[in-house]
Amino acid sequence: MLRKNKEPYSSFYNILGFYPDNIRLYEQALLHKSSSVEVEKGKWLNNERMEFLGDAVLDAIVADVVYTTFPTKREGFLTNTRSKIVSRETLNRVAIELGLDKFIVYSIKLNNHNKCIYGNALEAFIAAIYLDKGYDVCKKFVCDWIIARHLDIHAMAQKEVNFKSNLIEWSQKNKIDISFDLIESFSDNDGNPVFQTQVTISGVQAGVGIGYSKKESQQNAAKMAVKKLRTDKEFQRFIIDLKKKKTGENTETHEFDELPEEEHEQEPDEPGGCTDEPQAGPVIKEG
To answer: Which residues contact 165 (CB under 8 A, 6 or more apart)?
Structure first.
């Protein structure tokens, strides 16, 4: 798949910091399913299975790192931070910065707009390290070559996802109409103003949000709409058919994965046990 002789080893050394033992694992990790190779009758070689394994290994390593880095933080914060580090957006960027994009083998039909292949290949590449060298070497690579050089996990832990701006950007890119409309405003039991906003996508309600400011209610509505776009297959089909009718362009379901993942609520950094009690929110004043 790569050039013969010593060049593949040198290329991988520049990315890994060590020479592979089984170079075929790393070559397979960079082989997208669109360019699968038939190794025997009915059996095709690509990086899909390795991507599955790498995803699990990376999750475990990042969970370990986050747990150790933030010793006083509770489960919600740790989960939220891990999800930001292993998000598709982050992995795509890191894969390009590592130079993996130059070695991925894929069909020219996918073109460079399908950037998910970079993050997927990075996960498969991590699986290759794990299979070739074991967990300790794999963890060292993630810590020393990915996190230390390409990520600031303290800054990422504090970063909030702007669901509204992401949703608007996505709608503009896909030529889909979107609007944020204030449904009503009222007061809670303490007299504080509360706002309720709905998001409509091509005339269909996609999310409703509530908050103590218009901005907060819009953000919460956008968050619900993003979740619907990412997970509701029927709604995805509606958007795909609508876009094709309006522009003649086909939308792949993986394009919805470019939207940000829903974050878990951060919990306060205080000691204490588990609780099943719901989080407090605006108390609606009746009447």
So the answer is: none
In angstroms, the CA 120 to CA 206 distance is 29
pLDDT digits (tens, 9 = 90+) for 224-269: 998 888 888 888 888 888 878 877 766 565 567 667 665 443 333 3
Taking Cα atoms as reference points, which of 94, 121, 122, 98 lies closest to residue 34? Answer: 121
Is 123 designated active site? yes
Residue 167 Ramachandran class (φ > 0 left, ψ -120 to 50 alpha, else beta): alpha
Residue 162 structure tokens: 């702007």
Nearest CA to 212 out of 202, 204, 203, 220 is that of 220
Catalytic residue, candidates 51, 89, 101, 123 = 123
Whole-model pTM above 0.90?
no
First and final CA of the chain: distance in angstroms? 70
Active-site residue flag, 55 = yes
Instruction: For residue 116, name the pLDDT band (cuts at 50, 70, 90).
Output: confident
Considering the candidates 27, 51, 55, 263, report the single residue annotated as catalytic: 55
Q: What whole-number distance in Å separates Cα of residue 285 and Cα of residue 282? A: 9
